[in-house]
Amino acid sequence: MNIVFMGTPKFAVPSLEILIKNNYNISTVVTQPDRPAGRGLQIQFSEVKKFAILRKLPILQPEDLKSEDFIDTIKKLEPDLIIVVAYRILPPEVFTIPKKGSFNLHASLLPKYRGAAPINWAIINGETETGVTTFFLEEKVDTGNIILQKKINIDFEDTAGTLHDKLSLLGAETVLETVRLIETGNVKTYKQNDTLATLAPKIYKDDCKINWDKNAIDIYNFIRGLSPTPCSYTYFDNKQLKIYSSKVTNRKSIANAGSIIIENRNLYVNTKDFQLQILELQLEGKRKLSAIDFINGLNKRNNLKFS
């Protein structure tokens, strides 16, 4: 089969790799244009582009997916299938080109968590199960007929980062199985139940501020659901303080939410109900620290508070 693969971040790389290992013909890889990033604003390649270069695969990086040049280029490739893993929203002019259709890998059990940040929101909402879904593309985002779904447990210690990696590997296996079903003509699909749909919208910086007035378990889920990126934060001494990891305790809160207790070289924060132990954090302009190292820099100050 002649396949056009579309993807950008690290999440998509295992799916591309497994197709190559199984001798599928990737006629081209489509990924985001190179962008400046980091403090030095150096031009950065996407993770998919880096991998495609190593495997000497043809690469396209269109700015406009509706441009005639891009559409004509895809048509000339005469793909049997387009596979989309963590890329952009394709217009119908593109996803209707392949003979056998176009499918997407999504990191949730659709119709739950439609949108840009399904991994983050599943953890933030305290889900204990999630998975991946392959579905044929339709014009409305994340609504197409489902081909395959694979489930996975969300461990209580999982972060967005660890779950991302698990789902990336599970997703690759699911992509391969989906391609084989389509190739042999054994694919069967079923419609999504829109009444069960939930949303997982893109997360912005303002969404990441911790509300210490919530229950400890909700804050814990919020922190791990945003770790390591985009990362939850609070304020300390009028500076932004990122919180990377924490631990739920059975210690009841004894003071105002956000107030800090230092005991036996441990850092606790009062919430609505129980104290949350902070394990790893990073003050604005500083390096990431363990709670112990952070405590050592406080010089025995009193009445400390996160806000």
Could you characterize the architecture of this molecule?
- This protein has 307 residues and is an alpha/beta fold.
- The protein folds into two domains: 2-196, 3-Layer(aba) Sandwich (Rossmann fold), CATH 3.40.50.170; 205-296, Methionyl-tRNA Fmet Formyltransferase, Chain A, domain 2, CATH 3.10.25.10.
- Helix content is 26%, strand content 28%.
- The chain is built from eight helices and 15 strands.
- It has helices spanning 13-21, 47-54, 68-77, 92-95, 118-124, 160-184, 216-225, 291-296, and strands at 2-7, 25-30, 35-37, 42-44, 59-60, 81-85, 102-106, 129-136, 146-153, 232-236, 239-252, 260-263, 266-269, 274-283, 289-290.
- The strands form three sheets. It has a seven-stranded mixed sheet. Strands 10, 11, 12, 13, 14 and 15 form a six-stranded antiparallel sheet that branches. A two-stranded antiparallel ribbon has the order 3-4.
- Strand 12 (260-263) and strand 13 form a beta hairpin.
- Helix 1 (13-21) packs parallel to helix 6 and helix 5 packs antiparallel against helix 7.
- It is elongated, with a radius of gyration of 22 Å.
- The mean pLDDT is 96.
What's the layout of helices and strands?
Layout: E1 2-7, H1 13-21, E2 25-30, E3 35-37, E4 42-44, H2 47-54, E5 59-60, H3 68-77, E6 81-85, H4 92-95, E7 102-106, H5 118-124, E8 129-136, E9 146-153, H6 160-184, H7 216-225, E10 232-236, E11 239-252, E12 260-263, E13 266-269, E14 274-283, E15 289-290, H8 291-296
Parallel strand pairs: 1-2, 1-6, 2-5, 6-7
Antiparallel strand pairs: 3-4, 7-8, 8-9, 10-11, 11-14, 12-13, 13-14, 14-15
Helix pairs in contact: 1-6, 5-7
